[in-house]
Structures
1.
Amino acid sequence: MLQCCWNCSGIIKIFFLQIFIFSLIIQHVNADCSYVPVLSGITPLQTFGETNKRYLPQVLDCRKACAAETTFTCTGFLWPAEGGDCYLYDKMNLALDIFRNNQNSYVMYVRVCDGAPTPSVGFCEFVQNITNVAAVTSSISVSPGIATESSCREFCIAQYQGVQCNAYVVSPDTKMLSQCVLYSAVPTGLTTGTSNLYVKTCRPPPVSCTYTPWSAWGTCTATCTKTRNRTVAAQATVGGAPCLTTEMTGSSSCTESPCVLTTTTAKPMTTTPSGPGNGGITPTSSGGTGGGATTTGGPPRDTPCAYTDWTGWGTCNSQCLQTSTRTPLTGSAAACSNTSSTNLSQVCSGGACTTTGGNGGTGSATTSAPVPETGCRFYDIDPQSKPSTLGFKAVGAQASCSSKCAAETSFKCEAYATTGPGGPCVLHGAVDSPTNVVLMSSWYLQDLNCKVN
């Protein structure tokens, strides 16, 4: 009898444990999350404590890209105000120093779930502290060489050669290059010269754009959607999230009249993940009665979303990208609103994407996925410079020079020179030689190890 009671007690414990675990799973699945803007002017060439990061060029909706990311759980992203290149992150440690400046257009978005308040995040910037001083080297300093003020700032943010940079000295003249010296502590006793001292200054959280309360939801339309709106109440202060049109309109699926859903005698079609040329539509049984009945009012049964086949890949454009599309065929708004994107893109070769090889011949652009740019950026360089004796290769126009560098197999690519996406690309080994600079040059050198000299 005691044994029986013990077994019963164990069964009861397991039963309630299963219920508890199941409730946690349900809570996780049903978590209501959104991405909210918190800061503006953020430079993407800094780290936020992430383990995984992904760069996506020219994205129309970075929110959707973050939510749809499958290689890691995206919890935040950087994206210019409503259009442009998108950087996805699995983690954003908001306790770290987050650097901004007015020359950057990137807005930081973070994930907020289950009605949690929007995090209040401060930022750091480098401000002019003393003018007309001379750069001096000491035990607390290191110099990456001559640079513009913007390049010197990037070296400082990237902690060049491991220096916990808190200040730098460089000329403020945008038409003049000068020695850039980074300091782990703010230097004192500087002599007179032509440069300025810039010191890291951290600010309290700014005020982001505020909006009026949401309006009431509008009438449910025939397409089974409803919208609500709000307007700007007050503009953001410096560094705060700007006022964005994407934050002023909200939409949701609905089932009230006059929402009309039609069920036909044909079996519903649901899509399976596939790419162009793989069909993409598979008939499945709905378990319903069919019969062509039309239902109006009340909560209609969600009909699985069906799509057309993916179109073939489009022509490779001058940016070395091609696209494929599909469109919804049938299905309820609720079902279709939770499906994957109707657009795919990939890096390609051929077509308008024609490159010039290192020997003057014509080749194809890289087909590898875009790789985030890391390390330090050195502006106004002479493209004829040979900063490395350990490898050199001109690979012509590339949609992503960073991807071409990562894919190089003939030597270890640790730096590259380019004018930007779609521009010419020159790969280099580890930097071990001086880099020449030219005023007003459109080229920059990306050094993965931050050792430009």
2.
Amino acid sequence: MSRSVAIRSSRWISALGLALVLSPTSLFAQSANEDPFKNFSRKNASAFLQSFKDPIKDVLPSVVRVRIEDQDVALGTVVRSDGYIVTKNSELVGDLQVIFRDDRKVPAKVVATNEAFDLALIKVELRNLPVVKWANTAGTVGNWVASPGMDSVPAAVGVVSVGTRTLSRRELAIETTVPQGGFLGIEPIVNESRIMIKDVVKNSAAEKAGVKKNDYLLAIGDQRITTREGVFEALSKSKPGQTIEILLNRGGEEIKLLVKLGRRQGVDRSDVQNAMGSTLSTRKMGFPVILQHDTVLKATDCGGPLVDLDGKVLGLNIARAGRVESYAIPTDALQKALQEMFSSISTTKAKPAETTSSTKSK
């Protein structure tokens, strides 16, 4: 370890130790009879978060807020100085706006996506942006990590709970069986080899668009509909908030309607138990590889970097998956995904972001 790194680490450890000793919300002030999960909320107490200001300070300029219609939907991370930012794709429905730390508000557009990791590469028309520097080191189980947001202290902190891994078959099965598409709000039935709308859910997207009982559904977008399964398949490709076109037959006349899809109201019981008062990410599983940590991260704070105590960026937060489960994409997998997205928008080979050396001694 270099002398400067040693001094910085020593100061940080001293500050953290002082915060833990003096704060009444110390992680270690727990009796045997207390709820073992009670202190997870304490980790995000203001006094405790102050101890993590130093490790994240060099990363903060590269973190931005992503909004749609003045609503926070995700964080973003600058990956190229000429206006390229990576964020979480499944939350991006509508006109994008990026908020910088100096309060600049800039429109953005999606230029590439990676469905496997739920990533979007978005572009703003700015130059000379500060670029994040990824570390090509993996997080170590038991080590502290911080998730920078838009403030000088982290949005949340936690501990690496499971090393880099692929999701189990059971987890992948859960992801693929839970409806992820937009909600139309109809009850389709087969009538004379056609799909008839038997009922329309009150206050649903379909009702608001003018869909009526006994209409025949002919197409959703470009997909012709001939079976009930076809309805679900077509909607599974959509997102809540997305506007789609549907083709109906009403009284022998074909009509087209634009429908802004809603969000399915039914909630899985395990999601309720996992969330415990905090919203989970809409897309929270199905990633090829993840780094799991126990940070109590807001779903709207996904898309930002995950940083260790040396200030190294270990990956990109991609999902709040459970009560004390958050997922990050490890840097090696993220680098490959970024390269693929850049390659898809340009014939010129582009570097995703600078990488720090993994040979840095501790």
3.
Amino acid sequence: MSLFFWKKDVSRLTKSLHHLLHEVAPALPDEKDDLDDEPDATTNGSTPPESPTSLDEPPSNAATPSEVDVLDVDATGRVERLLTKIRRLVCGTPDVPIQTDECAQVVDMLLRYHVMERLVHPDLLVQISFEAQKSVGAIVKTMVHHHPAAIRPIVCQVSFLGRLCQGYACSATEVVLVCGSMLRDCLDTFDDAISLFLSKMPSEFDTLVNVACTHAHFDISSDALTNISCLLTHHTPELDAECDRLFASYQRLLTSSNYATQRHALQI
């Protein structure tokens, strides 16, 4: 089916991906299956569904759905094709600039039907191609930087940030780096995400420190260190409040036997 058709029916495009992911990827704890109840988005974009603020977040150890079904070849191919088309609409291409109205509608639909929460699950990312993984990363980056007001309620949640941190446990290097990059986009853009991470996600911070100290792959340990730098070089009230706990953990980096890790930690 041509991209031209999908560009004239972006609502159907995003709903198709939602239905497909709904069968295989878990939602976040507070997600509601409102596909059949929501009206179709209009081309000028509409307000995304309300999400809880950081003050309403459950603790980071709250139970979350964690299993993703194994995709068959047909489902994998459909996800990858849909991602390619959505990336073209949201991010544009060198030859085809972004069409503002169509992009706004796609963004609205991706948020309305909780597609982004499912797409960033590491167990789903590991089953799709590297190009499709990069498409997910590019879509998140574009939405964070060009549609911050719309995506902020989604990404500034313990459950969403925690799902990105789960990527560091993945055995596939490319998935770890894509998840790390998406986490960095959120931290670089939203002070709320940093505040939430520092105050309510102690185990995830320790995970970043552990990866930076012990991971054998230099690119992955450097990625974790870069995200630690994002967290500790933005001044927030939570950084002051949690200083003792954070730097007790950070001490591991300063005393690391790995020279590159120790040097990077000293630079931070």
